Amino acid sequence: MGLLLLSTIFSCESFLEEDNKTGLTADAYYATAEGMEALVNSCYTPMRFWYGKENGIALTETGTDIFTRGNGMENPPVALYNSDLQGANAPIGFYWTRLYSALNTTNSVIGRIGDSPLSSTLKPIREAEARFLRAFYLWHIVETWGGVHFTTTEVTAIESTANKTPIETFYAQIFEDLDFAVNNLPATTSDYGRVIKPSAEAFLARMHLYRGNNAEAARLAKNVINDYNYSLVANYADLWNINNVRNSEVVWLVNFTADLVLNRELENPDGDILLRDGGNNSHLFFLMTYDQMPGMLRDINNGRPFARFMPTAHLLDLFDETKDARFNATFQTVWYANNSKNAPAGMNLGDTAIFVTKKIIPQSVKNEKNYNIIDRSRTYGPNDAPLVRDRYMSLKKFLDPSRLTISQQQGKRDAFVIRLAEMFLIVAEAEMNLGNMGEAVNHFNAVRRRAALPGFEEAMEISAAELDIDMILDERAREFAGEQQRWFDLKRTGKLVERVQAWNPDAAANIRPYHVLRPIPQSQLDAVTNKNEFTQNEGYN
């Protein structure tokens, strides 16, 4: 593992040595104000490996109750929990390497910043940023693999041993770092994308909820709701307007750029891709292959359909589209003809070419139409197992019509990590756990009212007697589908196995309790010398 942890340091030194006109070494560069600022900035970059990227989405959304594999999915084992989900899984190994490299970078900042020439005013702010990000990466590590290797010091030499550290130790460090961040970060910044105090409070609220510290979770989430200038966007659909990405609801995000020169695929001298295709790629993965159907060809507005992930029937059934505006804001159900060359008789440009519904449509009705109707019986079987994996209702939240060409993979959309709606639902869950049902349902209903179609605000509200953890998980599915929280939500609530068995026929027969952790990469197990101590997670070979 030490070899992998050192990769970022060696890459940086190699870069400096390629044309080292100044004679600076990495150590000397990081001892300058410019070098320290660059090192802090580099702590943010690894988030772009996870958010808005195919395998990061696969590990957080598929293999749950709401998403399964489409026909184009490149890593089916994480969706199916089958026997191929083992330590040799390449994407899991990739994230182990990247997250530990990210951890090492944050440790480097925290260890070096005290001797840096940054001003006494700036120094605690930059350290707070690094501590927030260290907590963020530690959380991803511990929730993905459990009590694995833990370190808070920079790796500067090859290490051949690894430790198994209790989960509680990880969280103790996470809380310590986030407390430091809350106490030292400014409330605002002119440098969009940098972590600030409310971002740290929001993430700390999430962490306290994960550990069952309900009073602290509720207090911190209420701070974010009440003490800053955030507000729920009035219409849920407006959250996903590509021209409204910077809006009043975003508490923290992963910042991408629209500059394709900066958004290129970047490689290090060894050919290891650091930013696959650049930008936010989430617009690619949830789309069915609409461009293979009569009357249609691929265009920018409808997206480039990779068909990696498809919704379970359960996710579709969670929405009451007669009252909940999120259904039509989340899913694309109609495609309009844009290709006259392969259109059936009587279909003109702009006419309906494809209609997708979660209902079953009688064959007689289908026969009357000159457009394709993809109903429930075409996509899902009697037990809701997928019959096909290329014809389904597409999740459209992440579409990026600002792309310059139909083949462009790079997207400029920022990836939302924490939205204000989550703070309301954290308060609801925490107060429910504390028995304060009135307070809980008030915050829960704030999200429901925002989601309502005009005139249905009261109809969307629930009573305190209806609120339980399943209701909250259902609401989180409707609100955050595709936003890379679902696997963690099901795991932390002890509902992963139960809900997958109930509503994901693809994975129901395979999932076991040990799947709440991912396998440790076999390359790491092979590399350490203390193999009897640093062993594979339970259930994996």
Automatic annotation (TrEMBL):
<keyword id="KW-0998">Cell outer membrane</keyword>
<dbReference type="InterPro" id="IPR033985">
    <property type="entry name" value="SusD-like_N"/>
</dbReference>
<feature type="domain" description="SusD-like N-terminal">
    <location>
        <begin position="35"/>
        <end position="209"/>
    </location>
</feature>
<dbReference type="InterPro" id="IPR012944">
    <property type="entry name" value="SusD_RagB_dom"/>
</dbReference>
<dbReference type="Pfam" id="PF07980">
    <property type="entry name" value="SusD_RagB"/>
</dbReference>
<dbReference type="InterPro" id="IPR011990">
    <property type="entry name" value="TPR-like_helical_dom_sf"/>
</dbReference>
<dbReference type="Pfam" id="PF14322">
    <property type="entry name" value="SusD-like_3"/>
</dbReference>
<comment type="similarity">
    <text>Belongs to the SusD family.</text>
</comment>
<keyword id="KW-0472">Membrane</keyword>
<feature type="domain" description="RagB/SusD">
    <location>
        <begin position="302"/>
        <end position="540"/>
    </location>
</feature>
<keyword id="KW-0732">Signal</keyword>
<protein>
    <submittedName>
        <fullName>Starch-binding associating with outer membrane</fullName>
    </submittedName>
</protein>
